[in-house]
Write a structure and sequence with these properties.
Layout: E1 7-10, E2 16-20, H1 28-35, E3 38-43, H2 52-59, E4 65-68, H3 76-84, E5 89-92, H4 102-107, E6 111-113, H5 120-135, H6 138-146, E7 167-171, H7 175-188, E8 191-195, H8 201-208, H9 216-222, E9 230-232, H10 236-242, E10 245-248, H11 262-267, E11 273-276, H12 285-294, E12 299-302, E13 321-323, H13 332-350, H14 363-366, H15 382-385
Parallel strand pairs: 2-3, 2-4, 4-5, 5-6, 7-8, 7-10, 8-9, 10-11, 11-12, 12-13
Antiparallel strand pairs: 1-3
Bound molecules: nicotinamide-adenine-dinucleotide and (2R)-2,3-dihydroxypropanoic acid (DGY).
(2R)-2,3-dihydroxypropanoic acid binds near residues 70, 96, 119 and 329.
């Protein structure tokens, strides 16, 4: 017997039943589904992380598609239940989909959507914010002020690091890593070193210059300033050894689990800053707590944690750690856009639309003044399922 779940229903007579496991920001995503004959059911259960059993109850006997969240375990059990209910589409409201077993989805012929592009700059901005907050000890200073401890300016009060002229290291220079690198290079005139499995040509062109435009380095030189330098490292360890601020932006998979471990932390400069806005398990958090204890000048800014929502023991007590609750993509425009893209992924599969040819070109779907293209914006297993690709 399925557990009772509280839901909010839009367009009760709609032909296609689409379930969202959470209320999502904005209403455009609901309107777009309703206009296309969907009955939309939104789970309003007061429980942050839904279990597999909760979601099975939501899917019920007939369900055409589900919009889900990164906190949910989308594996064999859920894809089997969705397929049994006639469902052909699932979309994470996230770009990362390490919570989804794509092979299981393939087995049941379920399309898996994600939401790249719309969160690139917002996430990079939080990584930049954490970098500054750590470099200038903003959270510690704020706590000191609120505690009524400030009794006058002092030469040694909360002295931090100047970013200008230091080296920023990026591990995983994809969409977000590259956007972050540009912010730190352009905004703070930092030198760049990056490591990725692939060459990030777009990022390199920004620093070195393209044929018709001058590079940022040349621009600085022309203004009588020290030009920035850049380097693609041949190993991740090179980045860890050379950079003053290191930001992690890879996907989470078997190759990136505990990418930063005890040995690699030991390679880093004693006063380095480490930022993580990717996924918690990319860092061995127990090793990190030990490192923070023994290296008080080493600082971290973390948006994600190994066992979310929990922190490993001791992390919350460390003055040299800044911790925020997985809010890197949390700007209004981005979160509403993520909801829209996730809904359109599900709708696109239900309506038999082709898959959009470039999942990074999301603007046509986000333009509130126009109808979105008849395509599913980003389906990660499109190839495996043999789905047609849009000509646009
Ligand atoms: N904290 C948040 O709220 C938040 C928001 C958005 C994205 N994310 C995370 O950030 C990740 C990256 O997002 P994106 O849009 O930039 O993805 P992306 O695919 O554009 O970039 C990921 C990059 O990591 C590289 N990479 C993969 N394995 C690697 C390895 N072993 N070593 C070095 N580099 C490696 C890839 O080659 C790629 O360039 C997402 O998968 C998600 O987990 C978190
Ligand atoms: O992967 C993602 O999109 C984030 O973790 C949430 O925005």
């Amino acid at each position: 017997m399925a557990k009772p779940v509280s839901i909010e229903v839009w367009n009760p007579n709609g032909k296609y039943r689409v379930v969202s496991t959470k209320p999502m920001p904005g209403t455009r995503w609901i309107n777009l589904l309703v206009e296309q004959d969907c009955r939309v059911e939104i789970c309003t259960q007061k429980k942050t992380i839904l279990s597999v059993e909760d979601i099975i109850a939501l899917i019920g006997d007939k369900c055409d598609g589900v919009i889900g969240q990164l906190t949910e375990d989308w594996g064999e059990t859920l894809f089997s239940a969705l397929s049994k209910a006639g469902g052909k589409a699932f979309s994470n409201m996230a770009v990362g989909y390490n919570n989804v077993d794509v092979n299981a989805a393939n087995k049941y012929g379920v399309a898996v959507g994600n939401t790249p592009g719309v969160l690139t700059e917002t996430t990079a901005e939080l990584a930049a914010s954490l970098s500054l907050a750590a470099a200038r000890r903003i959270v510690e200073a704020d706590e000191f002020m609120r505690a009524g401890l400030y009794d006058g300016w002092l030469p040694n009060l909360y002295v931090g690091n100047l970013l200008k002229g230091q080296t920023v290291g990026v591990i995983g220079a994809g969409r977000i890593g590259s956007a972050y690198a540009r912010m730190m290079v352009e905004g703070f005139k930092m030198n760049l070193i990056y490591f990725d499995l692939y060459q990030s040509t777009r990022l390199e062109k920004f620093v070195t210059g393209m044929s018709q435009f001058i590079s940022y380095g040349e621009f600085l030189k022309a203004n009588g300033e020290q030009p920035v330098t850049w380097k693609r490292a041949s190993s991740m360890d090179e980045v860890l050894q050379q950079a003053d601020v290191i930001s992690l932006h890879p996907i989470l998979d078997k190759t990136t689990y505990h990418l930063v471990n005890k040995e690699r932390l030991a390679l880093m400069k004693k006063e380095a800053i480490l930022i993580n806005c990717s996924r918690g398990p990319v860092i061995d958090e127990v090793a990190l707590v030990e490192h923070l204890k023994h290296n008080p000048m080493f600082r971290v800014g973390l948006d994600v944690f190994e066992d979310e929502p929990y922190m490993k023991p001791g992390l919350g007590d460390m003055k040299n750690a800044i911790v925020v609750p997985h809010i890197a993509s949390a700007s209004k425009w981005t979160r509403e856009g993520m909801a829209t893209l996730a809904a359109l992924n599900v709708l696109g599969k239900i309506k038999g639309y082709p898959v959009w040819s470039d999942p990074n070109r999301v603007e046509p779907f986000l333009n509130e003044n126009a109808r979105p293209p008849a395509a599913a914006p980003s389906i990660v297993n499109a190839k495996a399922l043999g789905l047609p690709v849009s000509k646009l």
